[in-house]
Amino acid sequence: MPKVNMVELLKKAKEEKYAVPLINIDTLEWLHAVMDTAQRLQSPIIIGTAPFQVERLGGVHTVVGMIDGLVKDKGYTIPYVIHLDHGSSFEWCKKAIDAGFTSVMIDASSLPLEENIAVTKEVVYYAHAHNISVEAEIGHVGGDEANGSKEVLYADLNECVRMVKETGVDCLTPALGSVHGDYKGEPKLGFDEMQAISEATNVPLVLHGGSGIPDYQIRMCIERGTAKINVATENRRAFHNRLRDILAKDALLIDPLKTTWVAKEAIEEIVESKILLFGSNNKA
Ligand code: 13P
C-alpha cells in the first residue's frame, strides 16, 4: 500500500541522511505536478494542506478523495502521506484523521508550553490509536503560512526535550530562524541548536519555510537530523510567473488546458529540484 504515515519514512530518511519533501498543494494542478514528479523520480512524498487550504479545496473529504482518487486513477506506486499542515486544534486533527489523512501537525506553538504539550498529548493519543503520525512545533516559525503573521521565536532545547518525552510525538519542528514566505537577506538558521535538539530528542526534525534557503544550508540541515522539509512559496511564485507569461503571449486564451495546466510545469521543475537537493530520489 503506497499510502503511509510518516514514521517509517522519516526514520529511514534520518538514518540515510536525506529529507522527504512536504509540498503544500493549492489546486488539483498542483497535486498532479507533485505526484507525477515524485513518481518519475521514485521519491516518497508528503502532500501538505493547512486548514486554510483544506477549506478552500472543499474540506477534509475532498482532500483525501482527490489524492487517493488520483493515486488510483494514475496507478502511482510511491509511498505518499496525506498530512494536515499546521493543524490549529485537536478538533482539526481529529477531523482530518477521521477523513483519511495519515499524518497531522498540531501547531499549538503560540500557546504557553504547558498548553502546547497538553493539546499535543491529546492529539498523539488519538492519532496513535489510529496509526497516524504526529508533528509538533516548539518556538515560532516566522512569516504568515497558516496562523497569521508570526515573529520568529527560537526553540528552546529543554522545551523540545519535554515536548518529545511527555507527548510521544513522532517528529518535531524546532523553530530555528526559518520563515514561511520570503526571507529578508540570507536565512540565519540555528545549526548548533538543531544538532543539539536532534541528539537530545532523537526524533526526526522538520524544517518549515523551505523556500529560499540556499542549497548549502539545506544540506547542513539534513546533516543535523532534519528529515522533512516543507515547501510552498517557491511553487506559488513559479506557477504564477509561468501563468503570467502564458497569458501575456496570448490574451485571448480561455482553455485551462492551455493556461493553468501548462503553468503547472513550473511546479514540476521546482519539485524536481527539491527532490534532487533533498536526496529523496530513488528512496521510494
Ligand atoms: P514556504 O512557503 O516558505 O516554502 O514554507 C512552507 C511551509 O513551511 C509550510 O508549512
Show the helix and strand layout:
Blueprint: H1 7-16, E1 20-24, H2 28-40, E2 45-49, H3 51-57, H4 60-74, E3 80-87, H5 90-99, E4 103-106, H6 113-129, E5 133-138, H7 157-167, E6 171-174, H8 191-201, E7 205-207, H9 215-223, E8 226-231, H10 233-249, H11 260-278
Parallel strand pairs: 1-2, 1-8, 2-3, 3-4, 4-5, 5-6, 7-8
1,3-dihydroxyacetonephosphate is lined by residues 24, 85, 145, 180-181, 208-211, 230-233.
Question: In short, what is this structure?
Answer:
This protein is an alpha/beta fold. The chain has helices spanning 7-16, 28-40, 51-57, 60-74, 90-99, 113-129, 157-167, 191-201, 215-223, 233-249, 260-278; strands at residues 20-24, 45-49, 80-87, 103-106, 133-138, 171-174, 205-207, 226-231.
Walk me through what this model shows.
By secondary structure, the protein is an alpha/beta fold. The protein has a single domain, classed as Aldolase class I (TIM Barrel). Helices cover 49% and strands 14% of the residues. It contains 11 helices and 8 strands. An 8-stranded parallel β-sheet has the order 6-5-4-3-2-1-8-7. α7 links the parallel β5 and β6 (171-174). α2 (28-40) crosses α4, α5 packs parallel to α6 and α7 packs parallel to α8 (191-201). The structure holds 1,3-dihydroxyacetonephosphate (13P). The site of 1,3-dihydroxyacetonephosphate (13P) has 13 residues, from β8. The site of 1,3-dihydroxyacetonephosphate has 13 residues, from β8.
